[in-house]
């Protein structure tokens, strides 16, 4: 089994796609006006409209209602990412902070309030987990 993607359900696909394109530098591939994907070598972030929810099961997902999942992106330099995003992100949860497990992390919220973590391994042990 391979982990392939995570999907965010939103009431405003264009707004959320624009945010993630700006934040990640990845251009989305649009399938329809209700569904787009930001594909990276490690995984895909899918963004879908509330109109897609009934295709799975009516009422099974609600936009802007996540309080437990953090979507994470490995970046080359989290401090640089913070400086770059400062004029575009309105809700930083924290500034870059070095965590006990060896990652320097920047936690923010996307326009729907979902938590997003940009991180850079800063210890040899943490970097080894992501060596390719």
Write the layout of secondary structure elements.
Layout: E1 5-10, H1 13-24, E2 29-32, E3 35-39, E4 44-49, H2 53-56, E5 70-74, H3 78-85, E6 97-98, E7 103-109, E8 115-121, H4 124-128
Parallel strand pairs: 1-4, 5-8
Antiparallel strand pairs: 2-3, 3-4, 6-7, 7-8
Summarize the structure.
The protein is of the alpha/beta class and 132 residues long. Helix content is 22%, strand content 32%.
Per the principal axes of the C-alpha atoms, what is the gross shape?
globular
- Strand content of the residues, in percent? 25-35%
* Count of domains: 2
Strand order in space, largest sheet:
1-4-3-2
The topology string of helices and strands comes to EHEEEHEHEEEH
Low-confidence stretches: none
Distance between the termini: 20 Å
**CATH architecture field of the largest domain:** Roll
Average predicted confidence as pLDDT: 95
* Named CATH topology of the largest domain: 2,3-Dihydroxybiphenyl 1,2-Dioxygenase, domain 1
Q: What structural category do the secondary elements indicate?
A: alpha/beta
Structure description:
The protein has 132 residues and is of the alpha/beta class. The chain folds into 2 domains: 55 residues, Signal recognition particle alu RNA binding heterodimer, srp9/1; 64 residues, 2,3-Dihydroxybiphenyl 1,2-Dioxygenase, domain 1. Helix content is 22%, strand content 32%. The protein has 4 helices and 8 strands; from the N terminus they run E-H-E-E-E-H-E-H-E-E-E-H. The strands form 2 sheets. Strands 1-4-3-2 form a 4-stranded mixed beta sheet, covered by helices on one side. The protein starts with a strand and ends with a helix.
